[in-house]
Amino acid sequence: MTIKERLIKELEEIPDTIAEEMLNFCLFLKHKNQTQTKEQEKSDLLNFLHDVEIISQEIPAEEWEKLPVDLSKNLDYYLYGTQKNYRSTCLRSPF
Q1: Measuring CA to CA, how many Å separate 67 from each of 35, 61, 64?
Q2: What is d(CA 17, CA 23) in angstroms, rounded to the nearest whole number?
Q3: Per-residue confidence (pLDDT) for residue 89, from 0 to 100
Q4: Helix, strand, coil shares, percent, the chain, to 5
Q5: HSE, side-chain direction, 13 A CA sphere, residue 91
Q6: Which in 38, 45, 56, 73 has the greatest CB count within 10 A?
Q7: What is the predicted pLDDT for the residue at 85?
């Protein structure tokens, strides 16, 4: 018998007042776990960005200057030779 099956069996045998407390406790644990997961993801992202910053500081300025100014907009062009995007990224006013 799995833990969930044992828990369900116990819940079927307890009074409703205790079942309500169990439900509140389960919801609390679920929320606590979700919060910890989000905090861990945020921590992982910050660690990754810190590592990127350290690595980028090791690259000489001359190398950064060799990168095309439109690299992010035309990454597929530079990697795979697809058609280059010449459109402006500025939005035009409809007025």
Answers
A1: 40, 10, 6
A2: 10
A3: 55
A4: 65, 0, 35
A5: 3
A6: 73
A7: 85
Q: How many helices (H) and strands (E) does the chain have?
A: 4, 0
**pLDDT of 95:** 46
Question: What SS3 string covers the chain?
Answer: CCHHHHHHHHHHHCCHHHHHHHHHHHHHHHHHHHHHHHHHHHHHHHHHHHHHHHHHHCCCHHHHHCCCCCCCCCHHHHHHCCCCCCCCCCCCCCC
**Left (φ > 0), alpha (ψ -120 to 50) or beta: where does 91 sit?**
beta
Q: Which amino acid is at 38?
A: K
Q: Which amino acid is at 78?
A: Y
For the chain, give the mean pLDDT.
88
